[in-house]
Each structure stands twice: as structure tokens, then as C-alpha cells.
Amino acid sequence: MTTKTETAMAQGTRSVGALYVILRYGIYLAFLILCASMAIISPRFLTWQNISNVLLQSSTIGVIAVGMTFIIVAQGIDVSVGAIVALSSAISVALMLFHGLNQYLGLLVMIAGGLIAGFVNGFSVAYLRMPAFIVTLATMQAFRGFTMVVSQGRSWYNLPPVFQAIGFGMIGPVPVTIVVAIVAFIVGHVILSRTVFGQQVYAVGGNPEAARISGINVRRTVLKVYLLGGLFTAVAGILVTSRLNSFWPTMGTGFEFDAIASVVIGGTSLSGGVGFISGTAIGVLLMGVINNALNLLNVSAFYQQVAKGAIIFVAVLVDTLKVMYSKHR
Q1: How many CB atoms lie within 10 A of CB 47?
Q2: Smallest Cα–Cα separation from 231: which of 102, 90, 78?
Q3: CA within 20 to 30 Å of 57's CA: 46, 91, 210, 324, which one?
Q4: Which residues contact 105 (CB under 8 A, 6 or more apart)?
Q5: Which runs of E-coded beta strand occur in 67-178?
Q6: How far apart are CA 186 and CA 192, in angstroms?
């Protein structure tokens, strides 16, 4: 009887272990299967022009997702990133077009705008102990409102040459936008996996109280995480403004959901303490390939929204199953 029980327990452990491996690495398998399927279905899929389009369209969300990875690993969330893109772009472009600000100083203003927004979010979460989702939901509304105040609801065109150089420039055969995104992923990976600060982010996200007892300044770490998120979001704002070569009051709408979905699909846990920049990169690419595949297959924009919602639902479900497995193993 004892032998049978032990055998059953061992089989159960192997089954749960296999399930965890599928949940942990299934994203890579899904990405390969999707790419192989689309290569068979559509001859246009593997052309350099199409691949370049996927990478360009994924670059902006990718840069935001790098910062979002830090925030979610630290048990936070930021739904204001799309509004930060719009507000920082509005202030910077308005100063350059109507007040004669130097175009390079204008880019610094956009970076400063992202950092200030990140500070507001981070200070509210870390020092005022406000829930991250509520704080960033409130600032999202406020930043959108300020964007309308600054722009008076108007769009602006004919931006200074620096935006065209970034949005349409090339470094060899590779667009500048893609190069910036690759650099952002490398920098994010090094900071999160190779520095003391990165280890502190994991510790705070895994168990804030244990991190505090071990000597980590939890509040300061959380504030730094949101500052980093604001910085990456501002860089993404420069990229999207440059790609459009114009400013739109509604720009950045929906960026928060794409970024969060990419991070979670890439294996970062919404419960905190777990996450990898490399996983986020695959999550961003998977989202980009799915959008591209739906366009190549001429799927209605309405059904594309349904598909995107279903993908986010599955990603959260997988994350929940992984958390349940971790608690019971």
C-alpha cells in the first residue's frame, strides 16, 4: 500500500512539474508555432519589409514594457504610461513650436516630463501608501486632462528635424527606432539581472517585509522603480512622436494595456518577485506578430480587439496557475 501511495505521489509530482514547465516556457513554443504557421499561410510574413514593420510597431511598446517589467516585479502596476507619453510629448512639442525652445532641449524636456510623472506615481505609492492601480488610474485621467489643456485638443505637425532623424533615420540597414528599443532591452536586462538595485527590486516584489528586515529601503526602491518606468516611457514618447512626425492629443491611448499584457505574457508575475526582461522581449514580439498576423489575414479590427482581450485573459490565467503551483509544491 505504501509503495502504491508513494508511486502515485511521485506521478502526481511529475505531472505538476510538467505543467509548470509548460506554463513557464510555453510562451517560447507559442511564438515559434505562430511564426511557423504564418510562414506557411502567408508568403509575405517572412519578407524583410514585413519583419521590419513588426519590429517598428513593437518598438514603442517594447521600451515601455521594459520599465513596466521593473514596476510589476516590484509588485506595482502603472496604467498611466499612455497618458505620460501624450503629456510629455504635448509639453515638449508646444515649447519647441510656439516658444522657440531648442529641439535638443525639447527632447530633454520630454525626458523630464516622464521622470516627474514617474516621481508622482512612485511617491504616492511608496510614501503615501496608496494602491498603485488607483494612483496611476487617477494620474492617467489627470495627465490626459493636462494634455488637453496644453494642446487645446489640437494636433500639431511639421515638427523639428530631430524628430524626423529619429523616426525615419537608419543606422546601417536598421531603423533608429529599432536600435533604441534594442538598447533599452539590453540596459533593462543588465540593471535587473546584474546590479544590486535589480536584486533589491526582486526582494521587494517577493516579500516587502522580509526585504525591509534585511536592510533594504523598500520605499526608496519602489520610488526608483517608478522613476525608471517614467524614464523608459518618456523615451517611448520620443519614438512614437518621431514616427508620427506629429503630435496627437489621443496619442498613447491603449499603450498601458499592450505593455502590461506583453510583460505578463513574457512570464513576469503580477504577484511580484518574478520576471525577466528576456521574457518581456518575447512577449512584445508575440503581441506584435499576433497583430501582424491578424492584419495579414484581414481580420476585422473589432475581432482583433476580442483576440487581444482573450490573449490578456489567458496570460493572467497562466500567471495565476503558476502562483498556485508555487504555493503548493
Answers
A1: 11
A2: 78
A3: 91
A4: none
A5: 170-171, 174-175
A6: 10
pTM beyond 0.85, yes or no: yes
How confident is the model at residue 304, as a pLDDT? 82
Q: What is the dihedral of CA 25, 28, 31, 35, to 10 degrees?
A: -140
Taking the CA atoms of residue 142, residue 65, residue 284 and residue 281 in that order, the dihedral angle to the nearest 10 degrees is: 180
273 Rama sector, left if φ>0, alpha if ψ -120 to 50, beta otherwise: left
Q: Are 303 and 291 in contact (CB under 8 A)?
A: no
- Give the span between the Cα atoms of 128 and 117, in whole angstroms: 16
Q: Give SS3 for 68.
A: helix
**From CA 274, how far away is CA 285, in angstroms rounded?**
20
HEC secondary structure over 170-229: EECCEEHHHHHHHHHHHHHHHHHHHCHHHHHHHHHHHCHHHHHHCCCCHHHHHHHHHHHH
In 3D, which of 6, 23, 17 has the Cα closest to residue 267? 23
Q: Which three cell numbers mark 114?
A: 516622464
Which of 109, 92, 107, 83 has the alpha carbon at shortest distance from 254? 83
Q: Residue 85: left if φ>0, alpha if ψ -120 to 50, beta else—which one?
A: alpha
Under DSSP, the state recorded for 80 is: -
Q: Which residue in the block uniquely carries the three cell numbers 512614437?
A: 240
Going by the DSSP 8-state scheme, the letter that residue 272 receives in this structure is S
- Is-contact 251 153, C-beta < 8 A? no
C-alpha to C-alpha distance for 286 and 289, rounded to whole angstroms:
5
Mean pLDDT by 10 residues, the chain (329 residues): 55 58 72 89 89 93 97 97 97 95 96 97 97 97 97 93 94 93 98 97 96 96 98 97 94 92 90 92 92 89 83 78 69
